[in-house]
Amino acid sequence: MAKKEERRDASCERECDDKKQEKFNGHNHDCGCHGEKDNCNCGDNCDCQKEEKHECHCGHHEHNGKAQEYLAMAQQIQADFENFRRRALDEIKQSKLAGQASVIEVFLPCLDTFKEAKKSISDEAVLAGVEMIENKINEALTTLGVEKIASIGEVYNPHLHNVIAVMSDPSKPDDVILEEYQAGYTFNGKVIRVAAVIANKC
Question: Fewest CB atoms within 10 Å of the CB: 96, 185, 196, 201?
Answer without folding.
Answer: 96
